[in-house]
Amino acid sequence: MAFSAYLALLAILLSGCNRTPQKLLETGFPERTSSSLYLFPEGKKELNRKLTYFPDSRVIKSIRVEYADGGSLLVEFRPDGSPIMLRQFHPALEGAPVLARSIDYDTGGRVTRSVFQRPDGSLKAAGRVLTDGLFEQLEYSADGRTIIAHRDFDARGEIVYFRDFERPDNRSEKQTLPNGSTVSVEFREDGTRLSRTLSLGYYVGDQVLFYGDDGVNVTTVVFRKRTISAFYLRPDGTLSQFRELTSGGGMTVTVYGPGVRVDPLDSSLAAPSAGAVARQHWRKNYGSDSQSREFVLDRVEKIDATGKVVTRYKFDNRQMLKGVEYLNSDEKVVESQDLRDDGTVERIYHNQWGDKDYPISTRSEPVDRDAGLKPDVDETLFAPVDSTDPRTLVGPPVQQYYPGCYEGYDYESGYPCDY
C-alpha cells in the first residue's frame, strides 16, 4: 500500500497534476515533463529506468537504467531522435564499475566506434570506421591483446572481409541482415569476399553473388531456381550479358551494349529489355559431328536500339549459317534468304503482311550461284560469349515440389491434372 502511494505521489510530481499553463508558470514548473522515472518490483531485471526529455518536448534526450545485479546503462539521443552514444557497465565487483560496451553513432545512426569488454576489464572486441568507409571490427582472446578474428562491414552492414586467426580454414560466415533475411558468405584465403548466397525459399532456390579480387565489386549474379540463370557484369559495373539455361536443355545468351546497369542485390532481378544488341539461342547437342560440344548454335537475333529484333540468323546441325530473316518494326519476317554451303544466297522469300498473324502473300525467287550474292553478316554476333558456365558455380537446379495439383501439373505423380 505504501509502495502504491509512493508511485502515485511520484506520478503527480512528474506529471504536474494536469495544471494549466498559467498554473505551471505560477508554480515555476516547466509546461512539459522534463523527466520520467519508472520503478520495477523485486525480481525484475531492471531496478529503475529514468527518461529525460528535451525542453518542451516529448523527444527523449537520455535513458538511464540501473539493473538489479548492479550493472547500468546510459543512452543519449539527438533532438531528431537518433542515438549519440551508448555506455553499459558490468556490475562493480570492487571499486569502480567496469565498462561492458561503448558505442558511438554518427548523425545518420551508423556506428562509428565500438568497444566491448569482459567483466575483468579485458578487451573482447573493438571497432572503428576506416578511411574508405568500411567498419573494421577486431575480436580478442581472453588476454585482451591477441586478435583472433577480423571482420570489415560495408555501409549496409554486410560483411565484406573476414579472417579467423584461430581457425584459418574457417572461411564462411552466416549473417542476418537488417531486413531479417539470412545470407551465407564465403571468403578467400586472404580474407576478401568470394560469394554471397541469399536463400529465396526452400522450393524457390538461391541468389548467389560472386565478387572480384577486391571482394567488393560484383562480377556475376547467379539465380538457382527451376533453371539456372546468370548476369555477368563488366569491371565498371555495367551488364555484359545475361545467360539462361532453359528447361529443355538449351541456353539463351543476351548480349548488352555499354551503359546498361542493374542492381546485383535485387533478389527479383530480371533481364532488362533495353540495351540488348544480340541474343544467341543454343540448343542441346544430340549429334556426333560437333566434337562432343554440349551446345550448338541454333539462331542469333540482332536487336536494334528500340529492343526489336531486326535480323535473325539460322544455323544447321553442322553449325553453318543456312538462313537469314529480316523483320519489320512489328518483328514480322518481311524477307528471308536460304543460303548455300559457300554462303551465297540460293533463294529469297518476300512476305506481305496485313492485319493478320500470318502473311497475306509470299513470293519467292531463286538466285543464281554465279551472282555471288551474300547477306551482310556481322560474324561477331555468332561468337560464343566467353564467361564461366554458371552451373559450375552453384548446385543443380531446384526440384520444386507442390503437393497435389498445381497449375495443371501433379508433381507427385508426374502427370498433368485438372483438379
> Whole-number average pLDDT?
85
Q: What percentage of amino acids are in beta strands?
A: 35-45%
Question: Could you describe the largest sheet, including whether it forms a barrel?
Answer: 15 strands, antiparallel
Strand order of the largest sheet: 12-13-14-15-16-17-18-19-20-21-22-23-24-25-26
Oligomer: single chain
User: Which structural class fits the helix and strand makeup?
Assistant: mainly beta
The geometry reads as: elongated
Would you mind describing this structure in some detail?
This protein is mainly β and 419 residues long. The chain has a domain at 273-380. It is 5% helix and 44% strand. The chain is built from two helices and 29 strands. The chain has a 15-stranded antiparallel β-sheet, with no helix packed on it. An eleven-stranded antiparallel β-sheet has the order 1-2-3-4-5-6-7-8-9-10-11. Strands 27-28-29 form a three-stranded antiparallel β-sheet, with no helix packed on it. Strand 2 (46-53) and strand 3 form a beta hairpin. The longest helix is centred in the N-terminal third of the chain and has 14 residues, at 2-15. The relative contact order is 0.05. Mean pLDDT is 85; it is low at 1-27.
Give a summary of the structure in a few sentences.
Helices cover 5% and strands 44% of the residues.
Strand and helix map with partners:
Elements lengths: L1 H14 L5 H7 L7 E5 L6 E8 L6 E8 L4 E6 L5 E7 L9 E7 L5 E7 L5 E7 L5 E6 L6 E7 L5 E6 L7 E5 L5 E6 L5 E9 L3 E7 L6 E7 L3 E6 L5 E7 L5 E6 L19 E9 L10 E9 L5 E7 L5 E7 L5 E7 L5 E8 L8 E6 L38 E2 L2 E2 L4 E2 L3
